[in-house]
Structures
1.
Amino acid sequence: MELLAFGKTGWGDELFYATLMTIAVSITAMLVGFFFALIFTPLKLSKYKTLNLVGNFYTTVIRGVPELLVIYLFFFGGSGAIMYVASIFGYYEYIEINAFITGSMAIGIISGAYSTEVFRGAIQSIDKGQFEAAKVLGINKFGQFYKIILPQMLRLAIPNLSNVWQITLKDTSLISVTGLVEIMRQSYIAAGSTRDPLFFYSFAAVLYLLLTYVSMKLINKLEARYSMGY
Amino acid sequence: MINSFPKLLGATVVTLKLLSASLIFGLFVGLFFAILRLNKNIFINKFAYGYSYVFRGTPLLVQIFIIYFGLGQIEYFRTTFLWVIFKEPYWCAVIAFTLNTGAYTSEILRSAFQTIKLGIIEAGRSLGISNKIIFYKIQIPIAIRQSLPAYGNEIILMMKGTSLASTVTLMDLTGVAKHIISTTFKPIEVFIVAGGIYLFMTFIIHNIIKFLEKKYSFNS
């Protein structure tokens, strides 16, 4: 237990901050994922074949390639890509991107592919009459999507989005390879300096279980709220 | 880009070995725990539920690290015959993957068992077939067919999961890709080649499952 003490003698506070970091990365990645999903879901549902192709390319590639490989691409390729863009604008200094940004972008893109599939499924299960009614009422495309379809879709999407959240939360453990100090990285450091890997990795597992358990409870509440009246 | 291809192809063999070993063992583990889940004894039931909850609620990376770095720390454990297996990173990875995929497989099979219509089992009973034969000859084949789509997804997830073997020094496809990236600093090219190989495997698995689904569907 003294290994978990707060302050200089134990790893309690370090692991606490690491847990906060995991939560922060997960939430950022989830939001980045929503952003990508909002771009790619309309593409996947579009009438135009080329737009479909772009949407399908994104979800197929990201869901078919290991998360770790995507993270390595961002970790090793990220600053190179930014520097290339900067060089176009005449900036030639070395640019280093923060591990938090690289990590949440990489996980966000992965999470976005799953969210896109969830949104697509939810939109497709909305009654066609809703689209037609909105059209008849003369609501423009933008209004149709944001005011009519999106609110209905969210209710249908929440159970599946909670799966995406779980996947995203667990995927953040992979960012530890880039050196960002979240639960996994902190446990690795603690295990290395105390030579007690069994304890620290088991404790990390408990922390992840706690996070998934608490978030499930919260999502269930949200789900109950959104299905009011159904 | 061309030079890295043979190296990556060689590493693909490691990935495939890891995948097939963990899927075969994982199927047995999954079936075993699915049967426990259907048991009426509340302790057995809860034990099986706890297993699947823990392994599905924690990242695969933690599981590998506990098995590879953690277990070796126990002095007594190192004197047992099991140490022969657990000192090899390859087998540690296979064991972690097996337990992980076993947890997901048990959930898939359990829900498949539970969706079998009672009428089918009753029909078997009224024909005088013993419970054991009903289970092996009627429930299991139906459950397998029903769980094929979900299991196909699990295979693809597991294939991606094998990439974590690279974190315990195994040179699988991702491990070699990372090594090439960090020596040549050509992340995009290597990503395209390695990602392409993974996508190709996904494509093959997807089509095999589709074929099996068609073969075992009701209407064929």
2.
Amino acid sequence: MFKQKPGSRKDTVLPYLLILPMVLIIVGLVYYPVGRTIMTSFEAKDFTKPLQTGFVFLDNYKALLTDSTIWHSVTNTLYVLVLILVGTITLGIFTSLVLFKDSPIKGFVLAITILPWALPPIVNGLLWRGVFHPQFGIINKLLLELNIVETGIQWLSKPFLVLTIASLVVMWRTVPLASMVFLSALTAIPSDIYESAQMDGCNSVSAFRYITLPMLRPSIAIVLTLTSFVGVNLFDEIVSLTGFSGQTRTLLVEAYIRLFSFLNFGQGSAFVALIMLASAVPTYFYIRYLNAQVEYS
Amino acid sequence: MKKKFQWVYILSVAFLIIWSLGPIAWSIVMSVTTQKEMFSSTTILPQEPTLTNYQKLLKQDSKPGSAFLRGMRNSLSTSILTIAFVLPIAVLSAYAFSRIKFKGREVIRIGLLITFVVPALATIITLYQMFGLWGLLDKKIGLIIIYASSFFPLSVWMLSNHFCTLPRELEEAAWLDGCTRIQGLFKVVLPLSYPVLFAAALTIFLNTWNQFMIPLIMAPVPETKPLTVVITEFVTKHSTEYGMITAGGLLALIPPAFIAIIFRKYIAGGLVAGSVKG
Amino acid sequence: MKKTLFICVIAMLVLAACTPKAPAPTAAPATEAAATEAPVTETAAPQKMDASITVMVPPWAEIPSELIDKFTKETGIKVDMQIVGWDEIHNKIAIAAAGNTAAADVVEVDWSWVGEFASTGWFMPLNEFVTEDMKKDIPLIQTFTAGGNILAIPYANDFRIGTYNKAHFDAAGIKEPPKTWDELVQAAQAIKKAGIVQYPLGFPLSASEGATTYFLLITLSRSGPVFNEDGTLNKENVLSTMQFIYDLIYNQKLVDPNCTVMIDREIAANMYAGNQSFINGDPGMLTRTNDPERSKVVGQTARMLVPGHGDVRSATFGLPEGIGIPVNSKNKEAAWKFIEWFVSPEAALAQFEVNGSLPVRTSIFSEYVNEGKLEQGDVLLEQVGYVTSFAPAGIPAWYPKFSLVVQEALNKVATGTMSPEAATDMIASAVDSFLKE
């Protein structure tokens, strides 16, 4: 079938054949369902009001944007996103620097730092609930044992604390991947750059500032993207830490409630559509940026 | 100066160990604590540690045991089958994107990558209906093609970035020897891509292993239910079995941790490959 | 299979023999009668159906597969039991109905979903199947009736009843279980004073469904109706509950502040651990406090009525679970056969023995009490007599939204971030907006 020599006329068909299975699956299982969701977002579809149906165009969007309760989820998600991004980048770089240093226990430390990555998010949330539990959580037990506090602290009672802890929990499983990415970027930096910098009288701090960081820039971009998606899609951890509490809902939790608790598929779909739009625009530009970085033949 | 640096290193390593292992260590403690002691004990370590939770989970003929072991088998087989399904298709697409110029390439490529931002909530309702019609609900194959649709962007991106870094001359030499493009791909490109293939396979494995909402809605029957779903079922109407949850979570950690640790150096390599100008 | 064929052949022969002879006018009523009767009563020779159905219920409704096999043998109906988490069942019902399919032929319906499902019309009214006898024997069918339509048949009886630690009460010199909330608080003060436990009372106060039901229960039994007759919130009673809870946490310190982050199951665990002296829980609570595997207070606890107020001896409400048939099911008749069997004495006994669910049939319930199967069955029976509903007009369609608002308001009061007055206003205005919709 592909007997033709490269560069011949058949090459106009070949690429399409190669991508066909992928395109079929993506169109069928992503684009078509997303299209349906967007269509639904223009309809009145609250199942508890079966008589009011039909095309309402932007009414669901208007209802959402004027609903003051959704802004909670927006600010919550933004807060979590910023914490996760900053935390993952700094802790990731820190970890990779520690792992980069030659030492006899290097392999052992590497194996340990990679562990949290392998834990499913839903189990992760349940596990950390055990850490911060007011009664049998290790944090309270240690604080009580060391006489730092007299009675246990309700770590998961304040929205601000819950969101901070949730970010910590997410960071715990995003840092390993980040540090792996940074580590391989560090390994790729030619060591003679450092040597010549040292000859020029550069100390280790400024070497980091002027050599390491700039060299890490592309990998920081990768970690930022991967982590942003984790942040925007935060769901499992929040739910297993505090359930569907109104004050700690993130975007996806809020959308989930509108869809499945309130059975308002119209508004729920509109909300999901807004979330996708908000993350697709920066992603589009990011892909364009990456394209400029990588040269395609 | 040297000594001070040594101390900084030791402290950093200590911090990393506590940070990474602390919660896991605590869940080991919880997993050997009885439900009774969990709420009554005031000491840090349990007075009567017990392995009953593990025994229950690993005993084939007990109710939680058979569910758990079945979940373990389901998670493993689904993960491996997903790799087998996604990787070949991703390789073909990535090759087309990185090596062949064709009309609409950029549009299709961006169209693929942008689906990265689609959350499961946006597709699951329609997918449920479609799969209901096609008889794919409660089937592993149904889960696998959904996973495929959500893993393609990352895998294709990793692979095509890597293919771009390979010198074209090697392939061209193969063509001169009479190879077709497809033969060139298998004989020249793929042998040079093992690290990236490993990395892609591993991310697919871990991502499949971690799935929760999709199998919960699309296939929550014993024949397909993954570990993640089985473990959350230890939260019952009348009690949250923390001991069982943590014991189950720790056992569920073993296969992916094992694989991640063995293949660690490939994972990051694959992600970084294309990020630096090739 | 052979037997089915045999019955079919006989039936055809009979029909063939009858039709020509029977005059048309009499034949019509006869078949009509047969049509209405057929699904309701078992015919003398149980007719076998060649059908297979799917049944979707939560883990606590799973019954031994031998029993299911027996059902299949008797009726010819093959059953595929799908055990799915409770929340997920709700999601699957919605997703399936949105696509005009059925999640399963027989599906769990919780009491709290009735209002919603009454307005969505996703479940088939079962009125034509339900006999008067059945209605009489299963009074909880009322809970699953909306607008005259019976949407589901209850299979698990659940209501709130008090459980107290007798040893704690005795040690504090209290001989009789308290009858009112005021007496309960006094008893709790005595227990705390005697240094027996630090926090004798426990309420779920985290933002969770269990917190809403507990809050409604306190209001109903301690003050009275939650809603006014016009459907608006009874602000006086709700405010009283909010103030009561605030007072117990911050002034009297009888409730553990940790309750603000714990769900009902964890509050119950404190009861088993002996950290707590009283809880309003499900009827199975006593079995668990007496289970040596999880409890440190085996033999110390006893049932009591949910405390009342003034002349009101007690009040409680039911939280039963039922099963219904989605309108999109293609095997409705077989599905009904299964439901009928699922609430039969045989299946009810399995539910009771395996899952600890109390029977919904009054006849079976009193039989168990008489046989001594239920500990302190007399108290259980008495409590059942006080079962009312917090929403006399039926569970409203907006209950899920209402529940989320109550949880949030309650949690804010309990953590001291909102005043009881403001919290009450928050709930009241939410209810007003639901009513307006």
